[in-house]
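Extended Data, panel c. Modelled sequence:
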Amino acid sequence: MKKLVLASANQHKLQEIQSILKDFEFELVTMKAAGYGEDDIVESGVTFEENSMIKAQAVHNRLRVAALADDSGLEVDCLEGAPGVYSARYAGEPKSDKKNNEKLLNAMKDIQSEDRTARFVTVLTLVFENGDALVARGTVEGKIGFEEKGSNGFGYDPLFIVPELGKTFAELTESEKNALSHRGNALKVMREEIKRYYERTGC
């Protein structure tokens, strides 16, 4: 089984990715578990694609293993796409889901329901041991609620409503969320990219 190092210490992401990539013979571990160290990776990109590549390359270059990184965020239309690539630290350092959600609700306090459209975005980058890279993007459309609902998930999940279900991401089960989430959609694209890569290279 090949080791695949996730450029994150987030156990929620690890579990979500494991459940969708389980058909491939990857042993998925966090960068900390793989011995990357305590150094933070500076996400200096201005797009999800740039930050995802920066993180995957940093882990690959240091550990010389296959590395998978995602850069995800929330784009709110009435806020001109904010918080975007700054989603994790929207309310500043140290990063806090609670403070981020409070800041978002405050920024949208005068916005009516029909204008609260938003989307989650995930860009995944997989860098193989030989340096080859695959990139996949996934999105999901929704709306921002007026209060937090649900206890599952993390980040902005308690505020992000899936209109067709009438529930927030934090009110969905793991399987429900994987079926339609931005990360789930990006992982499905990545699954197909990996299959094509293996067929093309004979790996």
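The mean pLDDT is 92. This feature is highlighted in the accompanying rendering.
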